[in-house]
Amino acid sequence: xxxxxxxxxxxxxxxxxxxxxxxxxxxxxxxxxxxxxxxxxxxxxxxxxxxxxxxxxxxxxxxxxxxxxxxxxxxxxxxxxxxxxxxxxxxxxxxxxxxxxxxxxxxxx
Amino acid sequence: xxxxxxxxxxxxxxxxxxxxxxxxxxxxxxxxxxxxxxxxxxxxxxxxxxxxxxxxxxxxxxxxxxxxxxxxxxxxxxxxxxxxxxxxxxxxxxxxxxxxxxxxxxxxxxxx
Lengths: 109, 112
Known about the structure:
The structure holds two protein chains of two kinds. Chain A is mainly beta. Chain A has no helices and eleven strands. In chain A, 0% of the residues lie in helices and 57% in strands. In chain A, 34% of the residues are buried. The model of chain A has no long low-confidence stretch (mean pLDDT 93). Chain B is mainly β. Chain B has strands at 4-7, 10-13, 19-25, 31-38, 42-51, 54-57, 64-70, 73-78, 87-94, 102-103, 107-111.
């Protein structure tokens, strides 16, 4: 079983819809959870950072961590065409971060 | 990207030649990382550094070496480039090992 699993998509949704992106993981030692956004031909950029279980909201974005289920989510409200990108989940325990393979998201105008 | 630059941005090289990629930061962060990103594999860690002259291997380190003689510079060397090393290489920096990293814009390397 891979340490971090993420559906590669692509996921296509109409503008204005709520988007749900998810990752599962197997290592119970993970304590820090992140979401990165990567536009085509660019480097990943940190979008959300959470520690342990719970929710964190930042504008249209909400990150959710459920450590009991080893499941993390990113919700995007009122999705915009500019949200079209690849979203990578990431998590860390000791001294390095493990990334999911990313989900390609297309927001249709 | 603010605080971190990679050079060159693009490079085409021949099989068997040595290649060095450079990562330069102005943030004075302790941690620096080299990743490669390939379709179907995502980001894979090659090597990382936790201080000047302190480096360690990642999951795909074979065929690569690194050096960090100054806080701000982290060099990745492909000793003898092979076609399997054609990839996009990203450098990342971090204040500590668990907090989110800042990535550079990447180097697109083609080995022919």
